[in-house]
């Protein structure tokens, strides 16, 4: 039994590495680049910005980057690997890990640029709360993509997940004030309450990704009628 784990490691690597390479990463990186430009260009061209404007730009940057998340789920080889001995969720988990690392690095750079753009008012920016928002956006986009991935037999996810994510964003902007997520810095009470809801959204999104990636319905058992005795 102790030999099982060492034997599994090469198998996991043999599945995970090609899975990450097979992902459609160019749209993901392009979305991140455009999102970063939304924060970086105003900082270079316009000079110091107000904290409220920086918050808006950071939110737009996160939403833009979120549009590219679904393309990391694309798997052109899925029809041929559906019968592979490795678990179906393993390639997806490998892509999600790579996506999480890239997203974290991107957000750190984008947030730092936003702080620099705010100049002396950077202390007024709640970096932790904005990071929570960005994490919820990325996880929400991943949740939408994972649901699409579950139904995409041919492995095409991004082209469906991106517009579906946009629909979710529109719905969020139309929420009534009492459950609104996108609030300004002006009201501390509304800001704190909104970020409690952001945390709930993050947890629900993560749960959706987990269930969509791993849950498999059990096949229904057919009842066999008992044979009568003559």
From TrEMBL:
It comes from the Bacteria. The chain crosses the membrane at residues 54-73, 94-118, 130-149, 156-175, 195-215. Keywords: Membrane, Transmembrane, Transmembrane helix. This is ABC-2 type transport system permease protein. It comes from Asanoa ferruginea. The lineage of its organism: Bacteria, Bacillati, Actinomycetota, Actinomycetes, Micromonosporales.
């Amino acid at each position: 039994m102790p030999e099982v784990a060492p034997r599994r490691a090469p198998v996991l690597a043999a599945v995970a590495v090609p899975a990450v390479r097979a992902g459609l990463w160019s749209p993901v990186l392009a979305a991140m680049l455009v999102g970063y430009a939304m924060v970086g260009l105003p900082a270079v061209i316009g000079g110091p910005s107000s904290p409220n404007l920086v918050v808006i730009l950071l939110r737009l940057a996160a939403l833009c980057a979120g549009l590219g998340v679904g393309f990391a789920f694309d798997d052109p080889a899925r029809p041929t690997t559906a019968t592979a001995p490795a678990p179906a969720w393993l390639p997806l988990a490998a892509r999600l890990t790579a996506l999480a690392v890239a997203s974290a690095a991107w957000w750190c750079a984008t947030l730092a640029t936003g702080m620099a753009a705010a100049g002396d008012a950077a202390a007024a920016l709640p970096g932790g709360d904005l990071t929570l928002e960005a994490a919820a956006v990325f996880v929400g986009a991943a949740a939408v993509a994972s649901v699409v991935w579950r139904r995409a037999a041919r492995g095409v996810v991004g082209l469906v997940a991106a517009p579906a994510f946009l629909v979710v964003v529109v719905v969020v902007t139309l929420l009534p004030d009492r459950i609104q997520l996108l609030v300004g810095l002006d009201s501390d009470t509304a800001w704190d309450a909104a970020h409690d809801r952001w945390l709930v959204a993050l947890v629900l999104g993560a749960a959706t990704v987990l269930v969509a990636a791993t849950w498999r319905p059990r096949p229904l058992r057919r009842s066999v009628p008992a044979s009568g005795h003559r």
